[in-house]
Amino acid sequence: MPQTSARPLAIFGGTFDPVHLGHLSVAWEAAELLDAEVRLLPASVPPHRVPPIATAGQRVAILRAALHGQSRLMLDTRELDRSGPSFTIDTLHELRAEQGERPLVLLLGADAFAGLASWHRWRELFGAAHLGVLSRPGVSAVLSDELEREVAGRRVAGASALRALPAGKVIELAVTPLEISATRIRELLAAGRDPRYLLPAGLFDDPALLAAYRSPVA
User: Fold this and answer.
1) CB 4 within 8 A of CB 102
2) Residues 6+ apart with CB under 8 A from 130
3) Nearest 5 degrees, angle CA 66-CA 49-CA 182?
4) Which long-range contacts (CB under 8 A, 24 or more apart) does 193-201 make?
5) Within the chain, what is the greatest distance between any pair of CA atoms?
6) Residue 13 near residue 26 (C-beta atoms within 8 A)
7) pLDDT for 218
8) What is the mean pLDDT of the chain?
């Protein structure tokens, strides 16, 4: 595989229904640990979960407001712009065609990583990107034998190793987990409450941003 030394591009996907401080804090820490540009990619039709409550346009508006005023985390809407399920491997192939040999890093929570073998064309992921596993300090995910065999020999300890190759390595990133649930946030909003310190403060400046989650007034 060709050698490279470019600054990595990391991607962090999800429904972001809505995006909250838990999402943003781990993405920010990953950007620092990897010295990488991080893009948040809202999924259109997530293959592994129920469809989002908010529309694509509403989720994008919330993300834009949440990311305002900083330049480390960026928004990428490509999965919303194409039809069909949001398969990660398709997104990575698109990015590879655009970015050439630049290192790509797919950011995954430890639980998602442990279930990787259920993903669409999951073995191809290692040829398309490095994998950055967002984990609690000192806690490693328990992997199936099948996934452990695939990961064996790919693990690296330092972020500098990711710059030498465009794809193929796995790194654990110890980040500070914030136990915030999007489901709980939606419940609070539906009940007419404001989850003020669970969401970015800027989302409360415009009542229309969170209107999709609030129950109509009788």
Assistant:
1) yes
2) 8, 103, 104, 105, 106, 162, 165, 167, 168, 169, 170, 171
3) 35
4) 195/20, 197/21, 198/20, 198/21, 199/18, 199/19, 199/20, 199/21, 199/66, 200/19, 200/20, 200/21, 200/24, 200/65, 200/66
5) 62
6) no
7) 39
8) 92
pLDDT greater than 60 at residue 217: no
| pTM, to two decimals | 0.93
For residue 12, report the phi and psi dihedrals to the nearest 5 degrees: -130, 105
What's the token pair of residue 156? 């690296």
Kindly report, residue by residue over 39-63, the tens digit of the pLDDT.
999 998 766 678 899 999 999 999 9
Domains of the chain: 9-213 (3.40.50.620)
Q: Which two tokens stand for residue 85?
A: 């399920």
Residues 84-98 have pLDDT tens digits of 777 899 999 999 999
| Mean pLDDT, rounded, for 10-30 | 96
Q: Looking at the predicted structure, is the pLDDT value of residue 140 above 80?
A: no
Q: Which two tokens stand for residue 157?
A: 């300890």
What's the pLDDT at 102? 97
Tokens of 137: 């300090």
Tell me the residue type at 125.
L
Distance CA(71)–CA(73), nearest Å, equals 6
Residue 67 near residue 23 (C-beta atoms within 8 A): no
